[in-house]
Design goal:
Blueprint lengths: L7 H40 L2 E4 L2 E8 L7 E6 L8 E7 L12 H12 L3 E5 L11 H13 L2 H7 L1 E11 L1 H12 L13 E4 L12 H11 L9 H4 L13 E6 L6 H13 L4 E6 L14 H13 L6
């Protein structure tokens, strides 16, 4: 099994540590949802009005955990009844410390993807510094587990073999980690069949990072110094790159706040282990989903999603 950084055995040990930490957080969230929140969840589904946004039905604030932050908005496409659809887990940015699924540009992105035919789960997660790593990736994993639960699949007509992930900035880091750190088939558990990552910080060990971003990384990682930060490689998607990873589309501006070298190094790590990946470099200073306003970016993303999620995952 290959690795984007360090030896293969080191990568396996790091993956085991990360998966153990994430599993503990996911189990806690799911136990809370099942034992404590299930009546509330059912009431929320029954009482929360479904909103209509230009041909998209939106169901607000579904709980996937006990924390008030652990909420999902679903953007549902119009479609033929009884036909299972592909789904996308949408994860906002904000340096792991701010941001929300309710921000207009993230809601617009949710609706745009739903109009393209996808069931979209627009996710909030716990934020640093109150909840440093691995809280955010625990939450994103728990949200995916909720999305793939039998009840959710049946209620919203989702094909479990066609679930992808899409994130920008810090959200891009989280969906990339979701894509590389998991094990097993892409159509089960906490795995996805495709990843779109935009402007993501992909190496948190201190390589190719701007000075003005270091403090944000440290706050998220719960460290004082990147030279002495055990969480840094565990939060870096390239650490876990191997041939079982799903297809990636890595979108990055050529002159933005996260240096392009991070995207290039991550793509090289995936290529080195034979994982499918495409790098789309956009001539722009824009960051994260701001790049959606650049020419051809939306078309490229939709083409990638159609190619990777059109049929059930085989990975």
């Amino acid at each position: 099994m290959g690795s984007g950084s360090g030896s293969g055995s080191g990568s396996r040990r790091a993956r085991a540590r990360l998966l153990a930490a994430v599993a503990a957080g996911v189990v806690a969230a799911l136990v809370a949802t099942g034992a404590v929140l299930l009546p509330t969840l059912q009431r929320d589904r029954a009482s929360a009005p479904a909103r209509d946004a230009s041909g998209v039905t939106i169901v607000d604030a579904i709980a996937y955990g006990a924390d008030p932050t652990q909420r999902i908005d679903l953007c549902l496409p119009r479609g033929e009844a009884g036909v299972d659809r592909a789904a996308i887990l949408l994860v906002h940015g904000g340096s792991w410390a701010r941001g929300s699924r309710t921000e207009p540009h993230w809601r617009d992105t949710c609706a745009w993807l739903a109009r393209a035919g996808y069931v979209v789960a627009n996710v909030d997660y716990r934020l640093a510094p109150a909840d440093p790593f691995p809280a955010a990736i625990e939450d994103v994993t728990a949200a995916l587990t909720w999305l793939r639960s039998p009840e959710t699949l049946a209620t919203y007509a989702i094909d479990p073999g066609r679930i992808g992930a899409f994130g920008g900035s810090a959200g891009g880091n989280l969906v990339s980690l979701l894509g590389t750190a998991g094990t097993g088939a892409w159509d089960a558990g906490a795995r996805v069949a495709a990843v779109v990552t935009m402007s993501a910080p992909l190496d948190l060990t201190g390589a190719n990072v701007r000075d003005d971003f270091v403090e944000r990384q440290l706050a998220y990682l719960g460290c004082d110094d990147l030279d002495d930060c055990p969480a840094a490689p565990l939060a870096s998607p390239a650490t876990f790159a191997d041939a079982t990873d799903p297809p990636f589309l890595v979108v990055h501006g050529d002159d933005e706040m996260i240096p392009l070298e991070q995207a290039e190094a991550f793509v090289a790590a995936l290529e080195d282990v034979g994982a499918p990946v495409r790098l789309a470099v956009v001539p722009s200073e824009r960051h994260s989903i701001g790049l959606l306003d650049e020419p051809d970016v939306r078309d490229e993303i939709l083409a990638f999603l159609a190619a990777t999620l059109e049929e059930p995952a085989l990975g």
